[in-house]
Amino acid sequence: MHSVKEKVSNAAAAGKEHVDILKAKAEEKAEKVVARTKEERTIAEEVRKAKEAEAKMELHQAKARHAAEKLQSKQAHLGGIVGPHHHGPIVGGHGPTISGQGHQNPVGTTIPTTGTVAPAYPLGGYPPSHGHT
């Protein structure tokens, strides 16, 4: 169900991107009509390219946000427990585990936009709970 919602949201974001690009192209044509010099036409073209790039950036940000929302709803549904089949990078782990010791969950909080884990302690140091000084 969540992937359907994500796909629909992504499709809506893609539609918005196409509308924004078409609007930028129409504005470029209107500015080129009233432009008197080659430089003004070049400026109109560069403005269009910038607007297109912004529309594409917004699409990718929306897709990342939708994926993060899907992940958060999955974690909320599962009680926020990360199982042994973790598919992302583990940041904040504490060295290699010896066979048979089990799985260590990453230390820190999940960044909602990227889904990665940020350490909850200063980088380069150990968390205070491990007794390292």
From TrEMBL:
Coiled-coil residue windows: 34-70
Family matches, as InterPro entries: LEA_1 (IPR005513)
Disordered, as annotated region: 78-133
Low complexity composition-biased segments: 107-120
Record keywords: Coiled coil
Gene Ontology BP annotations: embryo development ending in seed dormancy
Protein name, entry field: Uncharacterized protein
Taxon lineage: Eukaryota, Viridiplantae, Streptophyta, Embryophyta, Tracheophyta
